[in-house]
Amino acid sequence: MTHKKEYLKEMGIDIWQDKSRINDASMTAKTSSQNNLEDIKKQVIACKLCDLHKTRTNTVFGIGNEKAKVMFIGEAPGANEDLKGEPFVGRAGMLLNSMLRSIGLERTDVYIANILKCRPPNNRDPLPQEVKLCTPYLQQQIALIQPKVLIAVGRIAAQFLLNTMESMSKLRGNTYQYGEQKIPLLVTYHPAYLLRSPSEKRKAYVDFLLIKKMVE
Q1: DSSP alpha helices (H): ranges in 31-85?
Q2: Whole-angstrom Cα distance, residue 125 to residue 173?
Q3: In the prediction, which pLDDT does 216 show?
Q4: Domain spanning 30-215: CATH 3.40.190.10
């Protein structure tokens, strides 16, 4: 309990309170070996399907436990991610790490990826065509990792994955199903948003408590 309070303190929270349709997507990959994920990563590195390859520094494939029960999905890499080639780094990544620890998880326990594998210039929102071309890579990652629950991180990721224009206030707190395998999907705030709006961290912690409950 002491460690938990320390992690909540890192997140700027004193005490948090507990609370308790998606279109089918084709899951093309069927097996789950490291080599298969590495093959997909190589395809991403070589990918030139859209113009984002012209402006990227690095592709950002994904990172974490390849047998993870929980898989986090953001919208697209930012500047720090583009430089490092890893999702959710910098201050936002540090906050995500603290949020994970608050429910007894480490970054190495989960898998983290984005819908887009390349950074859009100036961190603009992903274009529908870019999402369409890049989503098959994500679908294969999900099929190979076979997580118990998916977490859509941020409004844009949630809207694309759920094929909706609903607001975060309406999307949060509900359980959706993703793809033919009907994987449970939850929606939570992006850590970058929480850094700008620290008062919303309490709501995010409620989301993480639900994550914990679903994987116990």
Answers
A1: 34-46, 79-84
A2: 24
A3: 87
A4: no
Distances (CA, A) of 80 to 70, 87, 165, 212: 23, 9, 28, 28
Half-sphere exposure of 34 (CA within 13 A, CB side): 3
- The sign of the CA dihedral 99, 101, 103, 106 is positive
**73 bridge partner residues:** 113, 152
3-state secondary structure of 111: strand
With a pLDDT cut of 70, the percent of the chain lying above it is: 84
- 86-109 pLDDT, tens digit each: 999 999 999 999 999 999 999 999
What's the per-residue H, E or C state across 173-212?
CCCEEECCCCEEEEEECCHHHHHHCHHHHHHHHHHHHHHH
| pLDDT tens digits, one per residue of 59-86 | 999 999 999 999 999 999 999 999 999 9
The C-alpha angle with vertex 20 and arms to 17 and 22, in degrees rounded to 5, equals: 135
* pLDDT higher than 90, residue 9: no
pTM of the model: 0.84
Domain spans of the chain? Answer: 30-215
Q: Indicate left, alpha or beta for 84 from its phi (over 0: left) and psi (-120 to 50: alpha).
A: alpha
